[in-house]
């Protein structure tokens, strides 16, 4: 109904509308109750249990307090208060405490739960706080279940090695193989690692066709062979008569001309990958740390990622994680559960020195075009693209190059850069000599770890040359022999040569005493001292 109360009523003024009377108390209009039995002041009040129905227009609804509840009226305000207080024996402080192993059940409201530290675990409650701290105490490596350093305590310089059942102290061998050396890349000799195209920051290897020999220069001093790393041209400067007696080894540094990316995959071996271990800087310890890290995250779920929210809404079948500008959250997939189909098949293709190709649309196509001397074939059944060179094979030997003069130079002398090329000679069957760098017979040779030295063996026919360790046993690590026709032998097969060039790629971790020895004459023996730059 519509009520139109009088304006500016006096205190005690009344107003009646549709049989209902109101009275002004100076502040507000209040309903005036009558004895008219046709008007009930409330119809029904319902509670959690039971209802009350007014029987007259002046019926009274009484609100009583129940257990631990009191009621009071002040003016027109009804107040309902709870009077529950903590009482001894009213309830248990905790019900059940469950752990990974065992359960504790409260037996009373004042029961006590003790939080005790176990093995290498300590607990503490800070003074005047309700905080329980659970701390991991320090422990030795032997605390790990798969490590045993007590049966055979380690000595200085030893490393942990797997003995088939546990990690135990062992020697840190320098010869590599089967995880013996923390600086080797053993185990990384799969097809992926044997493909240089999968490496970055590798040097460039030029082909033999990239080199040529220029005109002979005017004789000067001791003579020399110069190389232009821009044109690939070698030029020979003959020595003068006065300079012949003071000839020294010529070190041909072809590093800048080498592009490893152009080396055929067939020439990449496990040993060639090992050569780059220091550049890759991967140690057995780091690999072990990575393995431990990966093992520890096996039990992690995606919920534990700081920028992923999968708890607000549980995922349904086929949904994907989508970024909502704050977190990754579950969202419907545009392709019904197979991932967003509105993605570019490729982002960009970059070629050194060329313009980068970028995908313009989600269905853009990258076209491979065959250039000169190249053919491209595709196989839709195997999703294979085959790129083949159509250029006829050139010379198969260094001496077969039509634009190279082999006088005074052969492929074994330029096979790879060396810090020094030692010309090996002999005095009968009594001693080796190295007139290019040392005086006297069987001199002590000094070498730096982490470098390559070369021995020119063309001057010692009949005197098979061998590198040995300090005990006189053959030392085959890092040895590469190249014959004058380009035949390459490595390891033990590189020992005992009487011509060509022997390269020794000395590992950076190597130091101490080694020997050179003629396999046919015991007197022809001398010392090789290897020093590390890090300890000089």
Care to describe what's here?
The chain is mainly beta. Among the domains are: 60 residues, no CATH class; 87 residues, no CATH class; 42 residues, no CATH class; 125 residues, Cupredoxins -  blue copper proteins (Immunoglobulin-like, Sandwich). Helices cover 4% and strands 27% of the residues. It is built from three helices and 35 strands. Strands 25-29-33-31-32 form a five-stranded mixed β-sheet, with no helix packed on it. Strands 28-35-34-30 form a four-stranded mixed β-sheet, with no helix packed on it. A hairpin with a 4-residue loop joins strand 4 and strand 5. The termini are far apart.
Quick structural summary:
By secondary structure, the protein is mainly beta.
Which secondary structure elements does this structure contain, and how are they paired or packed?
Layout: E1 14-17, E2 20-24, E3 29-32, E4 44-46, E5 51-53, E6 69-74, E7 77-82, E8 96-98, E9 103-105, E10 121-125, E11 132-136, E12 159-162, E13 167-170, E14 204-205, E15 212-213, E16 224-228, E17 233-237, E18 258-259, H1 270-274, H2 277-280, H3 284-296, E19 320-323, E20 328-331, E21 348-349, E22 357-358, E23 374-379, E24 384-389, E25 420-423, E26 425-427, E27 431-433, E28 445-448, E29 452-456, E30 465-469, E31 479-482, E32 488-490, E33 501-505, E34 512-518, E35 525-531
Parallel strand pairs: 15-17, 25-29, 28-35
Antiparallel strand pairs: 1-2, 2-3, 4-5, 6-7, 8-9, 10-11, 12-13, 14-18, 16-17, 19-20, 21-22, 23-24, 26-27, 29-33, 30-34, 31-32, 31-33, 34-35
